[in-house]
Design brief:
heterodimer; A: 366 residues; alpha+beta; three-stranded antiparallel sheet; 48% helix; B: 324 residues; mainly alpha; 0% strand
Chain lengths: 366, 324
């Protein structure tokens, strides 16, 4: 629609190469400059929270795989932890370590996609394919442990479904050694590339106040300089036993968010190595709470997903099915910043800014 | 037979031969690009059609020939259909004047560099026509971008060529090559070489200057709505501009066919391949500029440097020839 202000509307998505899934952004353009933007979501809405109310507790677990499909392990952990908290289940030590390892491997896999797609959005395919090459190795590790490559459902109430197979730790260590070198490659190829610096610096700047008022979390919040990471601020599982840093930014721009993700991959490698070295022997299941009917009540558990605070709020009325299940989705909250960020930028920066918020639409729309 | 008809006939035959050669070059470049890109991205590239996938491009062309030509509703039908030709033909005309061996060029006259500099930018009409006639907003933005950046790279490009013309004292490409018998102009004009090469890549819409088909924001830019061979012609136009730019760079700065032992044609080919491979390397590893950054870089950095380069070259030449 051409108006007399010489602006025109452009429908970015839901079928567009760089909207990270089905997302529609109605851009009001003045030449190349975005005047205003209106996001539209819901194209991937599957009613998971409602479906959960008609499933028994363990039947909900596969649904959580399909929320943030780049972080299925993390979703499984958050959900099982919520139900365990509600039912008062103790988890064996070894299972906690396995959960940490899997969560961190999945964080790496998720950040790899984020960094790779940031490359795509500025027009370089190479980083993207290199990132996918390493992600394949992680998926191989997951497949060895859980039998699946994307939707793992590896964890059970009271532990994990089965112990790590023989030789898994060696495979994982070999991957980590290789991976640290590869992270340096991504840094040279993309993060420190002069054109990428020029493109991503001072673009999509989020101030501290803005991030806090929207309730942003994860790398989006940390890029504004707030060192808020649930693994440190509210340690769950056994994160308090490991030594790692929380990278934070200063300016809150696109470049810092991608840099934070790169650094977090290095920190995750450190966590996994420590966990592999100190992992105790023993059972991985408490043996009796795999199928559980929690007492009436409610529980909220939040974990640090690659995108931020992923929370599961489970309400039980004492029956075999959850009375209500609410997912606090970090991708949804972070994505709500988008229309604030894209107003006034050039159209070329719009995909870059969306990508830096790292939305996964399985989780945004649920 | 009149001399004009004779010249026209000779020109036609030479052009036919030249275009055949260029056509082979375009297909070869497509194969090379896919294999190189694959190597850089740690994958194989095409592998199954022919030896190591070398015939993949022919298979693709065959497929493209069979595809339906879709003309979008609301498109300017005539403009939409001629736009691919407008963008391909001017690019190929460069090869008319390129000296491939001592005394051998399809068209050799004393101002042949003008054809080499003037024709490729005309491809912009094809791009603008494609973007406008497609009736798609993404295409429209892309065609406006290409119009906006035309002068941003053409002016530094022409200025860089100008400093070479001044040094050679000739407007003929053969004359320029002959002047490089002792020293290639890249040694005397390294800055002009870089500017000319950047601008040539920009003209070919290659990364990091591929703003007119930036797929991350503009889907496929000006050829979003094109299908089949019409789409392929834009692609060939891009390859043609890349080869044409590399050939010109080799002729102006790397001594063209000059070189010991090997036949002159081979020398030119080697230089062109080196330049093309360099651009492929950049294309497969670097991100792209944003339009305003590229324009700022061009107007505020490339153009002033090119102007200064011309002035300094002129002053030095005057001084050396005793004019000052």
């Amino acid at each position: 629609m051409v108006t007399n202000r010489q602006e025109f509307l452009i429908n970015m998505g839901p079928q567009h190469p760089s909207t990270h899934g089905v997302f529609r952004l109605v851009l009001d353009l003045d030449g190349e400059t975005v005047v205003s933007a209106e996001p539209e979501i819901g194209f991937l809405h599957r009613g998971m929270e409602k479906i959960s109310e008609n499933r028994t507790y363990e039947q909900v677990l596969p649904l959580t795989d399909r929320l943030d499909y780049l972080n299925s392990m993390g979703n499984n952990i958050a959900y099982t932890m919520a139900v365990e908290k509600l039912a008062g289940i103790e988890v064996p030590e070894r299972a906690l370590y396995i959960r940490v390892i899997m969560a961190e491997l999945n964080r790496i896999a998720s950040h790899l996609i984020s960094i790779g797609t940031q490359g795509l959005e500025v027009g370089t395919y190479t980083v993207f394919l290199h990132c996918f090459r390493e992600r394949e190795r992680i998926l191989d590790l997951f497949e060895m442990a859980s039998g699946a490559r994307l939707t793992y459902s590896y964890f059970r109430f009271g532990g994990v479904s089965r112990d790590l197979p023989d030789g898994w730790a060696d495979e994982a260590r070999a991957f980590l050694d290789l991976f640290l070198e590869r992270v340096d490659e991504y840094e040279t190829l993309l993060i420190q590339n002069p054109i990428y610096l020029k493109r991503a610096r001072d673009i999509g700047v989020i101030t501290r106040e803005l991030a806090l008022s929207y309730g942003a979390s994860g790398p989006v919040l940390r890029s504004t300089g707030i060192p808020w990471d649930l693994r440190k601020t509210d340690p769950y599982l056994v994160y308090d036993r490991f030594d790692f840093d929380i990278p934070v930014g200063e300016h809150g721009d696109v470049w810092e968010r991608s840099w934070i993700r790169l650094e977090e991959m290095r920190q995750s490698v450190a966590i996994i190595r420590q966990a592999l070295d100190t992992m105790p022997e023993g059972p991985v299941q408490d043996g009796y709470s795999r199928y559980v009917v929690p007492p009436a009540g409610y529980a909220y558990v939040a974990v640090e997903s690659p995108r931020g605070e992923l929370g599961f709020f489970v309400v039980s009325d004492g029956g075999a099915k959850p009375f209500r299940l609410k997912v606090r989705s970090p991708a949804f909250v972070n994505l709500s910043l988008v229309s604030e960020l894209v107003s006034g930028v050039k159209i070329a920066d719009v995909p870059l800014i969306i990508g830096s918020l790292d939305p996964v639409f399985g989780e945004v729309d649920r | 037979m009149s001399t004009y008809a004779d010249a026209a006939l000779r020109g036609f035959i030479a052009a036919l031969g030249g275009f055949t050669f260029v056509g082979i070059g375009l297909v070869a470049l497509n194969v090379i690009e896919r294999k190189t890109g694959g190597r850089i991205q740690s994958r194989h590239g095409p592998l199954h059609v022919g030896w190591h996938g070398t015939l993949q491009t022919f298979a693709d062309l065959l497929k493209l020939l069979q595809k339906e030509y879709i003309i979008p509703r609301g498109a300017d039908r005539i403009l939409f259909q001629i736009a691919p030709f407008l963008s391909l033909v001017p690019v190929l005309l460069v090869f008319l004047v390129v000296p491939i061996s001592p005394g051998i060029a399809a068209l050799d006259f004393n101002a042949s560099i003008l054809i080499a500099l003037v024709f490729p930018p005309l491809a912009i009409f094809g791009i603008m026509a494609a973007g406008w006639s497609s009736n798609s907003r993404y295409s429209l933005i892309a065609s406006l971008r290409s119009a906006g950046q035309l002068f941003a790279y053409e002016i530094p490009r022409a200025l860089a060529a100008l400093s070479v013309m001044m040094m050679a004292g000739s407007l003929s490409l053969s004359g320029i090559v002959e002047r490089q018998a002792a020293v290639w102009f890249i040694a005397a004009q390294p800055i002009a070489f870089l500017i000319f090469w950047f601008a040539s890549m920009a003209e070919a819409n290659r990364v990091p200057f591929d703003l007119t088909w930036a797929e991350s924001e503009l889907v496929s830019g000006f050829f979003t709505e094109y299908t089949g061979m019409r789409w392929a012609m834009f692609f060939l136009g891009e390859y043609g501009a890349l080869i044409g730019g590399s050939v010109l760079t080799a002729v102006l700065f790397l001594g063209g066919w000059q070189g010991p032992f090997l036949p002159p044609v081979l020398w030119l080919l080697i230089k062109v391949i080196v330049l093309v491979m360099l651009s492929l390397w950049v294309r497969w590893t670097w991100p792209r500029f944003r339009i305003d950054q590229w324009l700022a870089f061009s107007w505020k950095v490339l153009t002033p440097i090119a102007v200064a380069n011309v002035l300094v070259t002129g002053a030095l030449l005057l001084y050396l020839r005793g004019g000052l």
